[in-house]
Design a protein that fits this description.
The complex is a heterodimer. In chain A, about 75% of the residues lie in helices and about 0% in strands. By secondary structure, chain A is mainly alpha-helical. Classes of the chains: A mainly alpha, B mainly alpha.
């Protein structure tokens, strides 16, 4: 058996950096592992010319070739997407390279301590042990990288191009990188667009805060009332109140949309018939009333979730605390105000934050109830209507107006706003605090 | 006023409040049911009092003589494959994240967390092009892939957190007995993680039933239409067949509600009384 003492760490590091797996084969006697690593690099090198070409394409995004037939012209969008995918592959390769270097150094360290290299049989059994996690994780990686990461990176990059109607829609025309132009245009460069952006952003924030707040406290009030009253009929009420949570939200929103229709919706017709009102109430066609209506209907659909949640949290509060409060002479309201409320809010805080981020992106509640309507002054130009929130505006910009570049600016904005919220929420979780990650 | 009288008044006030809320909750639901059985077509000639114009089964007949069954089957196929795929991929991924230590684990978990805050349709254009490249446009499997990928980040986290609570001593005991990772995953971890896996199967099965954006983007031909697309087409800006919509929605919503009522109790008890106690 060859001694491992003479081998320096520097040498192992040098060999493993020069070519993937070289240190494993030449120095550490791990032929199979080394060969697998080397194979990865060989495959990568074989494809490197086309990788480089794709990356150059991504940087230029193609040239206008008006003399060629449409199908043969440079398609900037394909180039950009291919570029992002290639970038993902390059990053995965870099990660594997890093892993191979680390593995060589670890094996070197192990050999220094034990004085001899691992036997090949041990390496093989180690490899088959590693085969399971690799095989089990690869579907996740492939799907997430190509169907989640690549599309999101692509739409983030589009924010820095001029991909939009009328002059930059492939395959007829090409798209170019424009730097921060779109951001400048939307954040002050153009009065109409900036105004629309400000209006929609403020409404998105108000909507998310109000929608979360109303549903949470609406749910809490119902939970407390149901909990406190000792009436026999309570369970029946509880089952009724859960119903909105069980019915699919799209159905709910579309039904309400029809019931609240200004001219022939059932709600207005009923109110007129009963003599409560003389003229139809424009539930969904007046800007401010429509905003109010969306929050109201969202309360209808959203309070049962929090009612269940708060009920569950309240039953988990120890009876001792209540007893202590009663002995101290607290009345029912004081007990609720100083014991139940703080405890429940503390327990459910992460879910309140999650619900807030969900509402920022709550496409369904707006799209199916109002469709963003009613139309306001700048709607024809910007496609942002009275009750549109950022995500529904992104949808309008993408599907109707074909202003992909502006849609992407909005997506980047949402990201910049929500990512810290998600990280903050994550830092409060149990698994993070216990350092299990 | 005596204590008893105050209490009675309190009870009456509470019952009144509860009744008002219950009526508000029931109003649109009862109305949908009544529209599904009412003669007529659009919302404007629906009776103001539910079932005020008698009962008819015409709308259900219209649905079944049309493409409703086909929409239903398409959606069922999509939902089943999405659900089974999510179950398999997320549980395997979660097992690896929970039980193995490897380079980049932390950054991978972190990026999954950040990714899941985005609605998938933000990347719509790129998803469309990628599906076009692999021939997945206007196919059911293309849509399944999109849903599957969208489900994975959040659900992997969910299952991973659950698996973290299963004591590692169980794995070690099995490993001493000679079981490999695959066996430990299949025969020890999966059965214990059953409550969370049921939850995941249910949520990923119900998701596709009412999704509208992705079917609209991916599916083109009538033969591949899903329920949400079909139902939504009954009540567009151009036409209003609210009764047909109500009938179709009712047929989907009833199993949902029944399913929800059954599973809700089961899920709460099984999530509450965790399978393993140390």
């Amino acid at each position: 058996m060859e001694a491992a003492e003479g081998l320096s760490r520097k040498k192992v590091l040098g060999f493993s950096v020069v070519f993937m797996g070289l240190a494993h084969i030449a120095l550490l006697k791990q032929y199979i592992k080394g060969a697998l690593f080397a194979l990865v690099e060989i495959v990568f090198l074989v494809f490197s010319p086309s990788i480089v070409r794709k990356l150059i394409d991504m940087m230029t995004l193609g040239d206008e070739k008006p003399d060629l037939p449409v199908t043969m012209r440079d398609n900037s969008v394909f180039m950009l997407i291919d570029g992002v995918m290639i970038l993902a592959v390059v990053l995965i390769f870099a990660a594997l390279y890093y892993i191979s270097v680390r593995s060589a150094l670890q094996e070197h360290e192990r050999a220094q301590i034990s004085g001899s290299f691992s036997k090949n049989t041990a390496v093989i059994s180690n490899l088959s042990g590693n085969a399971f996690p690799i095989a089990a994780l690869s579907p996740t990686l492939i799907l997430v990288v190509f169907f989640v990461v690549v599309p999101l990176v692509f739409s983030a990059l589009v924010a820095f191009t001029n991909y939009s109607t009328p002059d930059h829609i492939p395959p007829n025309k090409t798209v170019d990188w424009v730097g921060l132009e779109n951001f400048i245009y939307l954040f002050g460069g153009d009065a109409t667009w900036t105004g629309a952006l400000l209006r929609v952003a403020v409404w998105t924030l108000c909507w998310a805060l109000l929608a979360t707040f109303t549903c949470y406290f609406g749910g809490m009030i119902m939970a407390v009332v149901l909990q406190e009253s000792k009436l026999k009929i309570v369970p029946a009420f509880r089952s009724i109140f859960i119903l909105p949570y069980a019915v699919p939200a799209v159905v709910t929103m579309l039904v309400w949309k029809n019931l609240l229709n200004g001219a022939f919706g059932t709600v207005n017709r009923t109110l007129i018939e009963l003599g409560v009102i003389n003229n139809a109430i424009p539930w969904l066609s007046d800007e401010w009333l429509a905003k109010f209506t969306t929050i109201l209907i969202n309360l209808w659909a959203g309070f049962p979730y929090f009612m269940l949640l708060v009920t569950g949290t309240m039953t988990a509060i120890s009876a001792d605390i209540y007893e202590a409060a009663t002995i101290d002479g607290a009345n029912k309201f004081q007990t609720f105000r100083h014991v139940t409320l703080p405890l429940v809010i503390y327990q459910t805080a992460p879910l309140i934050i999650m619900s807030f981020t969900h509402n920022i992106n709550n496409f369904g509640a707006i799209f199916f109830l109002t469709g963003g309507n009613p139309v306001v002054a700048d709607s024809t130009m910007t496609s942002a209507k009275g009750t549109d929130i950022l995500v529904t505006w992104i949808y309008n910009l993408t599907v109707n107006l074909l202003k992909y570049n502006y849609a992407s600016v909005l997506a980047v904005m949402i990201f910049v706003f929500l990512a810290p919220v998600a990280i903050f929420n994550f830092r409060r979780t149990k698994s993070y605090k216990e350092g299990e990650l | 006023m005596g204590v008893k009288a105050t209490r009675t008044i309190n009870s009456i006030v509470i019952v009144i409040i509860l009744t008002i809320v219950a009526l508000a909750v029931l109003y649109p639901l009862v109305y949908t049911v009544s529209s599904a059985f009412s003669p007529g077509n659009d919302i404007s000639n629906m009776p103001l009092i539910p079932f005020g114009k008698g009962v008819t089964f015409d709308h259900f007949k219209t649905l079944f003589s049309g493409s409703y069954v086909r929409w239903f089957l398409n959606t069922l196929i999509i939902a089943s494959f999405t659900s089974a795929g999510t179950l398999l991929v997320a549980s395997m991924g979660a097992y690896v994240f929970s039980r193995f230590r490897f380079t980049f684990k932390k950054s991978m978990m972190m990026s999954m967390l950040i990714l899941q805050i985005f609605p998938s349709f933000v990347g719509m254009v790129a998803i469309y092009v990628i599906l076009y490249r692999i021939g997945g446009l206007d196919t059911l499997w293309g849509l399944v892939l999109v849903y599957l990928a969208g489900n994975i980040p959040y659900n992997t986290w969910l299952v991973k957190s659950y698996m973290d609570n299963i004591p590692k001593s169980l794995d070690e005991a099995a490993r001493i007995d000679g079981a490999n990772h695959f066996r430990i995953y299949g025969t020890i971890i999966l059965p214990i993680a059953k409550p969370i896996l049921i939850f995941l199967t249910v949520t990923s099965f119900t998701g596709p039933w009412m999704d509208y954006i992705f079917p609209k983007m991916v599916l083109r031909s009538d033969a591949n239409m899903t329920l949400a697309l079909g139902l939504f087409n009954f009540v567009t800006d151009r036409k209003n067949e609210f009764t047909n919509f109500a009938a179709g929605a009712l047929l989907v919503a009833i199993p949902f509600v029944i399913f929800f009522i059954i599973t809700q109790k089961m899920l709460v008890t099984s999530l509450g009384g965790a399978a393993v106690k140390e």
